[in-house]
Design brief:
TIM Barrel, alpha/beta, 5-stranded parallel β-sheet
C-alpha cells in the first residue's frame, strides 16, 4: 500500500465540479486572444449576452475531460523515455519565474545572468531527486526580454539531457522554441511523439486568459507540446477565502484551459495544475506555502485525480528570504504533502521569496528533502520480515541485527541516507570535521557538484541553428552572451552517486 492523503470526499468533489461547470456555462471565460477565441467560436461555442465571455456548455467540458490523456511520457534530449506523468507518480522539478538569484558565493540577492543560469543547469543535471529541469529564473541582465525564454531553453538543451518545464514570455515565443526542440528529433511529428518539455499556461484570474496565454496555449497544442494549466488563485483577493470556494474557482480556470486545448487538438496532454497563494490580510503579501494554500493544492489535486488527469502544483518551496529554519520547514512540509497527494509534477525546489529568488544552495538541500519525501511514499511491502520469529531469535543470540543476512540484503533499499548537506554526524565527529554549519555544507555541496558535472556534446550545426533562431528575434544586432565553459576542479570531491528513481 502506498501512503496517501484523503482530504476530500467524492461527494464534495462532485459538488465542486458541478459549481465549476456552472461558472463556465453561465458566466464563461474572457478569452482575450483573438485567434484562440475565433477557434472556439468556429467550434460552436457561444458568447454571453455582453459578447465579452465565451460560454462552455457542460457537455463540451465533459467531452474535453474524457478526451484528454490520463498520463503521458516525457523524453530526454536524446529521445529516451525519462518520466511518466500520471497516476501517483511524483516528480520534483525546480520552480519557475524567478527574477533574481541568491549568489552562493557572496550571499547577495541580485539580477541573474547567463553564467548563473548555466551553473544552475549543470548543478541540476546531477541532482538525483530532481527529475527534470525548469527555466527557473530570468537572465534579462544580459539578453533582451523578447528572446530570454528561448535563450534559457538553449542553455538547458546544451548543458543537460534532462527534459525541461518551460514556457514563452511573449505572445509569439512558442514557435521559435518549438523549432529549437525539433532540431533534436527527426521532424515535428517525432517531437510530438516524444516531447521533451512541458510549457506553462497561466490563467490570469477573474476567469480570464490573457493575449499571451491564449496564443501560447494555441501554439503549444498545435506544436504538440504538453501544457500545464496554472491558475494563480489568490485566496481572499481574487478567489474566496474559504477552501471549498477557492477550489471551485481554481477548478473552473483549469477546466477552461483544458477544454480549449482539446478543442484545438483532441488528445492534447494537459496537466491539471496551479500556483495558488493565500492573501495575507495584515502583511498584504501572497504566501504560496501558507497552510491554506497548501490545503488548496492538495484539494485541487484530488479533483484532478478524480477526473483521471495528470497533476501539477507549486510546492516544495519557501516564501522565506534565506536558507534558514523557515525555508527548511516550509519546503519539506509541502514536499511531503505533495508526495502523499501524488502530485505528478511538483514545481518549487530552489525557490525563495514568493518564487522571486532562486538559490543553488537551497536547491541542493531541497534535492535531499525531496528524496526523503519520495522515500516516505514508497509502497509498504513485506520483505522477508513476516513472520518475524527468526529475526527475534537472531537479535537475542547476537544482541544486534547489523550483520544479519536480512539487514545486509535490505538496508540499501530500506534506509535513506542523506548526503552531506544534512547533518547526521554525532557531535564529536562533527567537531572533528570543523563544525560545519548548514551554510558551509551547502556551499561545499554546490562547489563539489558543479566540479563533478560532465559536459554533453551538441551537434555544432544544431547549436548554430538554435543560436540563429534566437539572434533573429533580437531587436538590436548584438552578440549573444558568452556561455562559460565547464572547468572541473581536480581536487574537488565528487558527491556520492545514489540511485535516481526513474519511471
Amino acid at each position: 500500500m502506498r501512503p496517501s492523503l484523503n482530504i476530500i470526499s467524492d461527494q464534495l468533489i462532485g459538488q465542486i465540479l458541478d459549481e465549476a461547470r456552472r461558472i463556465l456555462s453561465e458566466i464563461g471565460i474572457e478569452v482575450r486572444g483573438s485567434a484562440l477565441r475565433q477557434r472556439l467560436l468556429d467550434y460552436g461555442l457561444k458568447l454571453d449576452a455582453a459578447a465579452e465571455r465565451v460560454l462552455f456548455p457542460p457537455d463540451v467540458v465533459e467531452w474535453a475531460v474524457k478526451t484528454a490523456p490520463s498520463s503521458f511520457m516525457l523524453y530526454d534530449r536524446n529521445g529516451n523515455p525519462h518520466a511518466e506523468l500520471g497516476g501517483d507518480k511524483v516528480h520534483f522539478v525546480p520552480g519557475s519565474s524567478g527574477l533574481k538569484v541568491l549568489d552562493h558565493r557572496t550571499g547577495e540577492t541580485r539580477l541573474a545572468n547567463t553564467a548563473d543560469f548555466v551553473e544552475y543547469v549543470r548543478l541540476t543535471d546531477g541532482l538525483e531527486h530532481i527529475a527534470y529541469l525548469a527555466t527557473a529564473f530570468s537572465t534579462n541582465d544580459d539578453i533582451e526580454a523578447e528572446v530570454s525564454d528561448a535563450w534559457r531553453l538553449y542553455l538547458c538543451l546544451t548543458n543537460s539531457l534532462k527534459p525541461v518545464v518551460s514556457g514563452a514570455f511573449t505572445e509569439h515565443g512558442v514557435p521559435r522554441m518549438a523549432e529549437m526542440m525539433a532540431l533534436f528529433r527527426q521532424d515535428r511529428a517525432d517531437l510530438i511523439a516524444r516531447p521533451m518539455s512541458i510549457f506553462t499556461i497561466t490563467a490570469t484570474g477573474n476567469f480570464r486568459y490573457s493575449e499571451d496565454s491564449c496564443q501560447n496555449l494555441l501554439d503549444c497544442v498545435e506544436a504538440g507540446i504538453p501544457i500545464e494549466i496554472v491558475p494563480v488563485t489568490l485566496m481572499g483577493l481574487i478567489a474566496p477565502v474559504t477552501l471549498v470556494g477557492a477550489t471551485v474557482f481554481h477548478t473552473a480556470d483549469v477546466l477552461a484551459g483544458l477544454t480549449m486545448a482539446q478543442i484545438v487538438k483532441p488528445g492534447a496532454p494537459v496537466l491539471f495544475g496551479g500556483a495558488p497563494a493565500a492573501f495575507h490580510m495584515k502583511a498584504a503579501t501572497s504566501p504560496m506555502v501558507a497552510i491554506e494554500a497548501l490545503h488548496l493544492d492538495v484539494a485541487y489535486t484530488a479533483v484532478g485525480k478524480h477526473l483521471n488527469l495528470p497533476t501539477q502544483a507549486y510546492m516544495a518551496l519557501s516564501d522565506g528570504k534565506f536558507l534558514d529554519a523557515q525555508a527548511g520547514a516550509e519546503t519539506f512540509g509541502s514536499a511531503l504533502l505533495a508526495a502523499l497527494a501524488g502530485v505528478n509534477s511538483v514545481s518549487g525546489p530552489g525557490m525563495l521569496d514568493y518564487v522571486l529568488v532562486f538559490s543553488l544552495e537551497k536547491l541542493v538541500v531541497d534535492n535531499d528533502l525531496c528524496g526523503q519525501a519520495l522515500h516516505f511514499v514508497q509502497e509498504m511491502k513485506v520483505k522477508e520480515d513476516l513472520p518475524t520469529l527468526n529475526l527475534v531469535r537472531q537479535l537475542l543470540d547476537e544482541q544486534h541485527l547489523i550483520t544479519a543476512e536480512h539487514t545486509l540484503t535490505h538496508w540499501p533499499q530500506s534506509l535513506y541516507l542523506p548526503d552531506g548537506v544534512i547533518d547526521r554526524m554525532n557531535r564529536e565527529n562533527w567537531q572533528k570535521a570543523g563544525s560545519p554549519t548548514l551554510a558551509e555544507r551547502t556551499k561545499t555541496a554546490v562547489t563539489q557538484r558543479l566540479a563533478a558535472y560532465t559536459p554533453i556534446d551538441t551537434d555544432p550545426r544544431i547549436d548554430a541553428e538554435m543560436r540563429r533562431l534566437i539572434q533573429a528575434g533580437l531587436k538590436a544586432a548584438v552578440p549573444l552572451p558568452i556561455v562559460p565553459k565547464h572547468e572541473g576542479a581536480e581536487t574537488a570531491v565528487s558527491p556520492r552517486r545514489r540511485r535516481f528513481r526513474r519511471d
